[in-house]
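Obj: model holo form, ligand = zinc ion.
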Amino acid sequence: MSPPPQCRKETSIAFALSLLPALTVLAALLAGYHALAALIFFTTFGLIVIGTLVPRCAWFGPLICSLPAGSKGVCLSIDDGPDPEHTLALLDILDLHQAKAIFFLIGDRAARHPELVREIAHRGHVIGNHSQTHPSATFWALGPWRMWAEISGCQQTLIQITGTAPQWFRPPVGHHNFFVAAPLRALGLRMLMWNCRGYDAVEKDPAVVLSRIEKGLHPGAIVLLHDAVPICGEVLSATLALIQQRGLHVQLPD
Ligand SMILES: [Zn+2]
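Output (holo structure tokens):
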């Protein structure tokens, strides 16, 4: 699937803007203003790094990090599925608590396990786009055409399986550069981040993960959890218990 004309135009503008700092540095160097060139280089490089790597930074496009102000609920978001070992167990835990979550699925995994994707949708959960191949180490540096392929590829995969176009996108590891906003606009996607996490994809002790989640579990929180990790079921159960203890409820984003 090739990008529509408006997306190509917006991407070209973003590409031209991304070259501006380098051209300015080059011009300053050629004119002999070496200190000015260094200042421009380090300032723009620092700003680009912050805008790209900080998940909650919205410099390169709109994003949502919490439920609307005044919300009394919390949103559970579960990344990186579907997974043949864990997804069904997570769905059963959610059913037990009558809770609905948003699952950010990886396109390649969804294509390998379409029956799990359909089961997630069948049980009333929301399915979001989490890129086609989840290139976590390089997503921050993807150029415009590969970025389009990652986002539109996952969108197509999920539409083919469920018949419905996802409305939410979450970038791998929360990184988002100059070239994310145009594909999202073209595909009608909104970027949903989080403001509460326990690092369950890297921490092996569920108690440590829970203690981190506990600190951020306030009304309006969007909790980041992961599928496909050994402790995911335990962490989800404990998080749901904690939500109940605090008198909160689980809700989906609007
Ligand atoms: Zn992920």
